[in-house]
Amino acid sequence: MSAELLQRARAGDREAFAALTEPHRGELQVHCYRMLGSLQDAEDAVQETMLAAWLGLDGFEGRASVRTWLYRIATNRCRNQLRSSGRRPVTAAPLPVPTPEPTRLGEVPWLQPYPDALLEGLSDQAPGPEARYESHEAISLAFVTAVQLLPPNQRAVLLLRDVLGYRASEAADVLALTEDAVTSALKRARATMDAARTADRPPPTPGSAEERALLDRFVAAFTEHDIDALVALMTDEAWVRMPPLPFEYRGTEAVRRFFTAVYPHWKESDRLVPVRANGQPAWGAYAHDPTTGILHITGVYVVGLAGDRISELTRFETTLAPYFGLPRTLD
């Protein structure tokens, strides 16, 4: 940190303030996304963090780095938001066909995908020695989904300790908790996360021939509306989710029942446009309008891979398409 930049920023120089804080914006947004499970909420939280930092710059004593100071503000903003009763209600257009009873093993209606494009060019801040998760696992949908099942303090402690690698004393300082409270919260959070982990094989390397072959089979099964072929690609304990709708199905039989029920609607999907989200393969799905022949986007799908099988298929609302550069229509 430049003492001159800090002095200029305290004197009201916004360019100096930006030079101090903007290098950390991207990683702060990823952190807030992990806390909140929502890209849109994470963007708002980072904006509020930067405003609070600007207004509170005189109170920054320099005992910690600017990065840690910003993480303190951002983490506590997220904790407050999670505790608030004023979070917007979950709304989504219902499916146009009846669906089977969900598995109901842990619905997470606030989950949204995170575009890989926003992960590019982030400052390469290596996690501390306490970290337990690799960066690619800590951005996966499976990880973020499991984090959303934790209470606010446990989320914050787990991310600070096991993802960012802060020591217990540092996490306690960021959260204004005792070290004993941090240790206790981390123990409970780890138990929940360990229970959510599966014994699936690791995914193939992104861009590898193995990944391309599996994804080609998935796209063919999906666009040909072949339920048997699609289910055959899935692990025995595969998940299908549709946040913010309260539908989640686990296991091939539950998945088969779901796709059989929604087949009249699903068979209208004609094209998949590839993107990437959370370090995973993803697509924008499009269906033909029978009157105009124009393709309209119907959803954003993200898959989780385990070896040569699919372990998760998650469908998100069309409102998220712009974040992935997906147009509303295709000719």
Description of the molecule:
The protein has helices at residues 3-10, 14-21, 25-36, 39-55, 66-83, 135-138, 141-147, 152-163, 168-175, 179-196, 209-223, 227-232, 252-266; strands at 234-241, 248-250, 269-277, 280-288, 295-306, 309-316, 329-330. With 331 residues, it is an alpha+beta fold. Among the domains are: 1-83, Orthogonal Bundle (Rna Polymerase Sigma Factor, Chain: A), CATH 1.10.1740.10; 209-330, Nuclear Transport Factor 2, Chain: A, CATH 3.10.450. Strands 1, 2, 3, 4, 5, 6 and 7 form a 7-stranded mixed beta sheet that branches. A hairpin with a 2-residue loop joins strand 5 and strand 6 (309-316). The mean pLDDT is 89.
Shape label: globular
Radius of gyration: 21 Å
Mean pLDDT: 89
> What structural class do the secondary elements suggest?
alpha+beta
Series of H and E elements: HHHHHHHHHHHHEEHEEEEE
- Second-tier CATH architecture of the domain at 209-330: Roll
CATH C-level of the domain at 209-330: Alpha Beta
Q: What is the tally of helical segments?
A: 13
Query: Strand tally, please?
Result: 7
| Main sheet: strands, sense, barrel | 7 strands, mixed
Unreliable sequence segments: none
Distance between the termini: 51 Å
Q: Which fold name corresponds to the CATH topology of the domain at 209-330?
A: Nuclear Transport Factor 2, Chain: A
Sheet-strand content, in percent, reads 15-25%
Helix content: 40-55%
